[in-house]
Amino acid sequence: MRRCIRVFSVICFFVVMAVMMLLMIGYVRIPDVMTVAEYDRINNVGKPYFCQTLTDIKSKGQSEEENEYVTSIKLFNIFPVKKAKVTVTQRKYVVPGGSIFGIRLYTRGVMVIRIDEVTTSSGNVSPGRIAGLKEGDMIISVDGVFVNRNKELSAVFSSSNGKQLKMLIERNGQQKEIVFTPVLSDDSSYKGGLWIRDSTAGIGTVSWYDRTNGIFAGLGHAVCDVDTGEIMPLAGGDAVEATVTGCYKSKSGSAGELCGVFSSGVIGELYINGNTGVYGVMDDFDKTAKEIPVALKQEVKPGAAQIICTVDESGPQYYDIQIVRVLVSDSRNQRNMTIKVTDQRLIEKTGGIVQGMSGSPIIQDGMLAGAVTHVFIDNCTEGYGILAEDMLETAENLHTAENQKAS
Fold first, then answer.
1. Residues 6 or more apart whose Cβ sits within 8 Å of residue 142
2. Could you give the CA distance from residue 117 to residue 393 in angstroms, rounded to a whole number?
3. 183-184 and 317-326 as β-strands: parallel, antiparallel, unpaired?
């Protein structure tokens, strides 16, 4: 009898521990705020043993297209785990991309990528260091005059006659004014000793576009300066036609790269260069192209999926991948999921994920789940992806801005 009691006690102990563990996992893994599409149900908030009960229907002040409610999440519909705010919205639809495009960006101001010394009659002097400049700073204006090109800043230095200049710079999103004094070099011209970048260019992949307004998204991550790693502040830019001419295959320790050339045709204008990608408006697009639904964050799950990308002259093609892990609560935006290329056709062509494939749409269960963003250098068949819902939020901000501009 005592033995039976001991066995029963041990079983109860492990059952209690298992329940407590599930409660802890549910509390951590289930988000506090969720979005569901109209007519959908929350049936995958965590695991099948987590159930939800509606407790407060429709918040005041919501439009007919969107409403909110609070739901109670319970373990086995018995043990309360937490409450979550649920927003009900209309399902969004977009046209998936997969074609490459050329990117030409012009910065807002000019970026300092290196600070050198100037050789003068009295020795080497660094006006930039003296003024307190740092690599990655954006020079916005000098003596109240905006500068957007390298040659404009050089002209200001050359005509300064060595006088102090009031320079407005931007660092980490904050603007400040500094005093900068060019010096007379040994070739009898006034110089600042700064290496400047005012534009950049490259290729990427279109993730999707909205056939109702022509807004499109690509890359899934920001265009950053190759020297400083800082996001290039966008003053203007173009999306242009591009053609793949070849590919340097990825291998362990080295990411490959798609080789492409720009065509003369401009396909759109770029308005945003941010954490979740580049965004713009197409000049011309197919208004009858087939749309697919955009997956909500909680609908994306580990398992089989596909990407659409262009790696040769055959154009956009579907290739099999595996979504290994989904990180819905990850705040880095571009790294919401880890993916693995499983399609041998793509591995033979590229070695896995290469530069230029960034932005390739990820399709799961017939929905746009996200886009490819990064490659793992030590294993080039694997990389990161961004959730489509995060990209759509950025695009909606652009749509709102465009509507305000039009009005």
1. 153, 156, 165, 166, 167, 168, 180
2. 45
3. unpaired
| pLDDT tens digits, 192-247 | 999 988 888 889 999 999 999 999 999 999 888 777 778 888 878 889 999 998 89
> Of residues 238, 358, 374, 390, which has the active-site annotation?
358
What whole-number distance in Å separates Cα of residue 327 and Cα of residue 334? 10
Q: Give which of 225, 274, 277 is closest to 385, Cα–Cα.
A: 277
The superfamily CATH assigns to domain 117-192 is PDZ domain (2.30.42.10)
Residue range 136-183, pLDDT digits in tens: 899 999 999 999 888 899 999 999 999 999 999 998 888 999 999 999
Question: Is 374 one of the catalytic residues?
Answer: no
Q: Please pick, among 210, 238, 343, 390, the residue that the annotation labels catalytic.
A: 343
Task: Answer whether CATH 3.30.300.130 is correct for domain 94-103+199-406.
Answer: no
Q: Is 399 one of the annotated active-site residues of the chain? A: no
Planar angle of CA 250, 256, 258, nearest 5 degrees = 130
CATH topology of domain 2-91: Immunoglobulin-like (2.60.40)
Q: Which residue in the block uniquely carries the two structure tokens 């639904």?
A: 293
329 included as an active-site residue: no
Give residue limits of the domains in the chain: 2-91, 94-103+199-406, 117-192
Q: Residue 112 pairs with which residues in a beta bridge?
A: 196
Contact (Cβ atoms closer than 8 angstroms) between residue 228 and residue 111: yes
Query: Which of 122, 89, 128 has the alpha carbon at shortest distance from 293?
Result: 89
- Residue 32's pLDDT is 67
pTM above 0.70, yes or no: yes
Rounded-to-integer distance, Cα 49 and Cα 356, Å: 42
User: How confident is the model over 309-356, as pLDDT tens digits?
Assistant: 999 988 999 999 999 999 865 555 668 899 999 999 999 999 999 999
Q: What is the rounded average pLDDT for all residues in the chain?
A: 83
Catalytic residue among 207, 221, 238, 374: 221
